[in-house]
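Appendix B, example 12.
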Amino acid sequence: MLRNRAMWCLLLMLFAFAEAGAQDKKPAKAADEEVIRVDTELVEVPVVVTDRAGKPLLNLKQGSFSVYEDGKPQQITDFGASSAPFEVALLLDTSGSARSELQLIRRAAQNFITSLRPGDKVAIVAFRTDTEGRRSVPTGEILSNLTDDRAALSSSLDRVSTSNGTPYYDSLIEVAEKIFGGPAKPEFRGRRALVALTDGVDSTSAADYSEAQELLEGSGIICYFIKVNTRDFFEQNLLGDCQIAIRFSAAQIRRYYRKIAAGSKLETTSDFCQLGDFERLAISKKLYELASDEMNSLAKRSGGRVFPVDDLSDARVAFKSVADEIGTKYSLGYYSSNEKRDGTYRQIKVDVKGLPAGTQVRAREGYTARGN
């Protein structure tokens, strides 16, 4: 009897140890899964869905969406409805022809901020001119970091000034690194946007477009551009006496010969006064075409749009269109099933099921994976 009782006690002890061992192993597995998740990049995909007439379709659920990376289905782990708030960096180009219409820019920007929803946060970036020794140096300035305080934003708009150059690429980098440099809070994941009022023709940046593109696309920032047509104004004042004409900057001339006229037999110069009228117009044409291509590429690949306007008086309507679209965006997030850190570009496709024919889906088109 005692022997049986001892055997039962031994069996119970072995069973208890086995249970304890199993429980100890479970947290280790969860920790492993957590390490994998932290080490894997969350891919954020903003999406807008419209019907045949272009009207946004709201109140869709997570189950309506499917995401594919390089043709392979992905598991959606994050979902933000169209009513979720946004973080918006507002970039105002106050150089060139815009210098005489500063009040128009301020009013258009104020109307845009008013059109956003109460939970949306806004940062404001504009250009100014600093003095370094005897040189005037255009630079980008963050007038307000992200906030939903509308009174503080209005006060920041009052401080928007003008510049004698366009540090456009440098300012895009400033948006990516300083405004959106840190990880987004959960409610803003996949819901960050750049809204830029500009002609996109850079004149003074130390950085190049490729640097800005890499940072913006890598951060999953949706890019909207209100593209102001300044070309007519610029070219009207570009010709004739080089001492009184609007000039290309040395950086613009170098960019033209390096990117656009590479390999041409034209003699290169960075001295504006050595350029004839014909060559000035040729450079202007190509610089504006380059700016348009860059804006269209950033907008399309990020899931945003370009809104062309003939002049600043039309900017208010374009800003309203941007605000309306921001209020209808969904956001999806997934951890890629491709865990390779190979630095390759991966294409994203979003499908929405159960909707009528003619439905349009516009989303982030892809991203570049991190390298080792």
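The two ends are 67 Å apart (CA to CA). Confidence is low (pLDDT under 50) at residues 14-39.
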